[in-house]
Structure formats: C-alpha cells, structure tokens
C-alpha cells in the first residue's frame, strides 16, 4: 500500500503545475551559478533563481498558483501524507519483529546499528537537498526516494522468501528424520508378533 503512495508522489512531478525540469536546470548549470545560488540561500538573500516562492498568488476558486494549476502540489501532499502514515506503521512492525526475533543480549547492538543506518540515510538525504536546491530538481529527489523505497521492499521480499525456504527445508528435514523412526517402530512391532 505504501508503495502505491510513493508512486503517487512520483506521478505528481509529471502533472500540470509541477516545476520539475531537470533537463533545463542541468543545461544551464555551471559551478559559478550553483555556488552563487548556494551561498545566497545560506545567507537568506534573494536568489537569482527563475522560480520564486515569495508572494505566490493562490486562487482557490480556480485552484491555481500564479496562474499555474496546483494539481501536482495537491497530489504530492496527499501522497506524502499517506506515505508517512505507511512509514510510521512499517516502523512499528519492524521494531516489533526485531524485538521478537533478536535475542535480548544482542538487541542493543542490532538496534544501535539500525539507528546508525537510518541516521546515515537521513544525512545523505539532507546532503542531496543541499546539492539540488532548485525547485526544478525536486523531482529528482522524489525519484531517488521512490527507488530507495522499492529497493527496500525488494530486499524485504528476498529475506521473506529466504525465510520461507528455510522453514520449508527445516520442516521437510524433520519429517524425513521422523520417517525412519516410525519405520523402525513398525519393524519392532512385526518382530514382537
């Protein structure tokens, strides 16, 4: 379900009103222009970016922002809100599974490593946002986020499949071990008769 909402967010960058234009951004990008925009954004001064969010004219009757449809914004925020709900539920399930499956004496190490990985990706996200600050590149960040989410789901499905095979083989192995015992008992019964 969460994956559907992640794809909804990804779809929003292609809807009317989206500022996503990675090709236009990278075709005009130079080190000097990026550095200038980066320094200006750190100072809080006005950037020479073509897309400004100051004094945006929102018309709620026609659902437009500065005359452009806000379809992409609404779809993005709806998908984002539902995705966050899915992330919250997923985090609860992961924590519960980890608490049940990890021995008590190893939990601190595993949870510490898990927390470190989460913090690493949080910092990586912040670095990407700093490196791609223009609204025209926000779609790239959405696409990267969707790809990482899909990779996470694929990893979990591989783990789940491996566990299912392990349990099946364990169950099959225990049945094979039980079978000769039953056969030996039948032979003993025949010998007794």
Automatic annotation (TrEMBL):
Location relative to the cell: Membrane
Major localization class: membrane
Keywords: Ion transport, Membrane, Signal, Transmembrane, Transmembrane helix, Transport
Listed GO CC annotations: membrane
Pfam family, one: FPN1
Membrane topology: Multi-pass membrane protein
Bilayer-crossing regions: 73-96, 108-132, 138-161
Domain of life: Eukaryota
Family per similarity comment: Belongs to the ferroportin (FP) (TC 2.A.100) family. SLC40A subfamily.
Protein name in the entry: Solute carrier family 40 member
Species annotation: Acrobeloides nanus
């Amino acid at each position: 379900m969460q994956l559907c909402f992640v794809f909804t967010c990804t779809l929003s960058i292609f809807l009317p009103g989206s500022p996503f234009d990675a090709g236009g951004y990278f075709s005009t990008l130079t080190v000097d222009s990026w550095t200038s925009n980066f320094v200006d954004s750190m100072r809080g001064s006005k950037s020479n970016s073509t897309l400004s969010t100051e004094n945006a004219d929102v018309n709620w009757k026609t659902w437009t922002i500065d005359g452009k449809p806000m379809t992409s914004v609404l779809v993005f925020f709806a998908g984002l809100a539902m995705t966050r709900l899915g992330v919250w539920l997923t985090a609860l399930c992961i924590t519960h599974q980890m608490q049940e499956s990890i021995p008590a004496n190893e939990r601190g190490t595993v949870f510490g490593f898990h927390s470190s990985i989460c913090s690493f990706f949080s910092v990586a996200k912040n670095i990407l946002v700093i490196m791609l600050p223009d609204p025209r590149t926000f779609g790239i960040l959405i696409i990267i986020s969707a790809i990482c989410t899909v990779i996470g789901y694929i990893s979990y499905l591989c783990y789940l499949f491996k566990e299912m095979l392990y349990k099946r083989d364990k169950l099959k192995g225990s049945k094979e071990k039980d079978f000769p015992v039953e056969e030996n008992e039948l032979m003993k019964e025949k010998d007794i008769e």
